[in-house]
Design brief:
The chain is of the alpha/beta class. The protein has 10 helices and 11 strands. It is 29% helix and 15% strand. It holds the Pfam family PI-PLC-X.
Length: 347
């Protein structure tokens, strides 16, 4: 999510303290419900156990989180419920059934990665991410995880800046791959090679593993050949197999975002069934915080409640939904997670 640049930064500096300091009107407060801010009501730590070994990853309906560790910095930057720093929140998401993560990294002193959302440090480093996923997969060996990695810092106003004098982002990534015990145990090796992209795996290939979907550079675009071959065109925003219209300029535009999610969900079901589709249900701006887009505001239905209703409707209302692809959510609710997972019962 890159919201700080939708307005001149000088205006943002003037507006944000005022917005955050004022009490939030009751009509803007979105209550937790089945679709929103109730992640812990879902418990699906072993749901992949029932997925047949020969099933392509492209066929599986997977709940994911956008900005998976964006917990700190206030309403403008928080995208997920806070279940603890140092990647404890990832453990909560994994137990709920989340299996795709969006991890944003800044280069720190000592050739290390720390987790950021824009300029805001998220009280975790990449070792935390790898170690918590490693521990979960050790306890739940039937499961597999998909990860999108992004170099977060653009160096522009409103973003972060990588520490100078360090190795390149991909060189540091390879250091983790080759030296972290957790990474050595868990990366699905074909997906973390600089010079060769991987084909879409089957469930049997990724049990107990982390599949790297893509590494994106600070301005978008795929970095080298890391990840899956089908995501060679994964750029900033929309691209082949990815819907990521992240700029929602105001609460009135949430309806447009809902429609973008719906149209891409329809494409996921009508399009190439051998491909993975990644549908970002998130969006924001200075006038529509992530929580408003997810949960709704000012009488406008949020993406999450809309999605829960849409997925529950039959073919008498709209085209059949037999798979959801990878749904990248902000503040997901437990029933919404369970609903996405229910489409795997047909595998």
């Amino acid at each position: 999510m890159r919201t700080m640049l939708t307005l001149p930064f000088s205006l943002v500096l003037l507006l944000v303290p005022t917005i955050l300091a004022e009490p939030v009107p009751q009509e803007l407060v979105r209550r937790a419900d089945d679709s929103y801010r109730t992640l812990s009501t879902a418990s699906n730590p072993d749901w992949m156990l029932k997925v047949p070994d020969g099933t392509s990853l492209a066929s599986i309906s997977i709940p994911g989180t956008h900005e998976s560790m964006a917990l700190f910095g206030g309403d403008l930057t928080q995208c997920q419920e806070n279940f603890g720093a140092s990647a404890d929140t990832l453990t909560a998401q994994l137990n709920a059934g989340i299996r795709m993560f969006d991890i944003r990294l800044r280069i720190e002193t000592g050739n290390k990665f720390v987790v950021h959302h824009g300029a805001v440090y998220q009280n975790a480093n990449f070792d935390d991410v790898l170690n918590k996923i490693d521990a979960f997969l050790a306890a739940h060996p039937s499961e597999g995880v998909v990860m999108r990695v992004k170099q977060e810092c653009t160096g522009e106003i409103g973003s972060c800046t990588d520490v100078s004098g360090q190795a390149s982002f991909i060189d540091i990534f390879d250091m983790y791959r080759d030296n972290s015990p957790a990474a050595q145990r868990r990366w699905w090796a074909p997906s973390v090679q600089r010079g060769s992209a991987a084909n879409t795996p089957t469930m049997s290939q990724i049990r107990g593993k982390i599949v790297l979907a893509v590494i994106n550079g600070p301005q978008g675009g795929r970095t080298e050949q890391y990840g899956l071959a089908q995501f060679s065109g994964w750029n900033d925003g929309d691209s082949d197999w990815v819907q990521d219209n992240y700029n929602v300029p105001n609460t009135g535009a949430i309806a447009t975002k809902r429609d973008q999610v719906r149209r891409f969900l329809d494409l996921t079901n009508a399009g190439d069934q051998t491909k993975m589709y990644v549908n970002f249900c998130s969006g924001s701006s200075i006038f529509a915080f992530p929580e408003a887009v997810a949960g709704g505001a000012l009488g406008t239905q949020g993406v999450n409640p809309f999605l829960l209703i849409y997925l529950g409707q039959g073919t008498d209302v709209h085209a059949e939904v037999h798979r959801t692809g990878m749904m990248m959510l902000d503040f997901p609710g437990g029933v919404l997670i369970n609903k996405i997972l229910s489409f795997n019962n047909n595998l």
